[in-house]
Amino acid sequence: MTVLYGIIIFLLIVAIVGTLLLTSRSDDNYRSSTKKNSRNLSLIYIILIILSIIALGLYIIIY
């Protein structure tokens, strides 16, 4: 059990260091791509919500 805790702590440290290394780089085109990214994310969320509602409805009907 102690080994698992060690592995989890190690993975957390690696994840934190990796995140900090990736966020240290700046994106020069961030301002121009923000609108496109927001639109794409909104479209993905809308599609996922619709599919989730359909899946829930099918689950309720079947079971």
Gist?
By secondary structure, the protein is an all-alpha fold. The protein has helices at 2-23, 30-62.
Low-confidence stretches: none
| Ends apart, CA distance between termini | 39 Å
The value of Rg in angstroms is: 20 Å
Structural class: mainly alpha
Primary descriptors:
mainly alpha, 2 helices
Verbal overview:
There is one protein chain. With 63 residues, this protein is an all-alpha fold. It is built from 2 helices and no strands. The longest helix has 33 residues, at 30-62. The relative contact order is 0.06. The radius of gyration is 20 Å and the shape is flat. It has helices spanning 2-23, 30-62. The chain has a domain at 36-63. The chain crosses the membrane at residues 6-23, 43-62. Keywords: Membrane, Transmembrane, Transmembrane helix.
Topology of this structure?
Elements (H helix, E strand, L loop, with lengths): L1 H22 L6 H33 L1
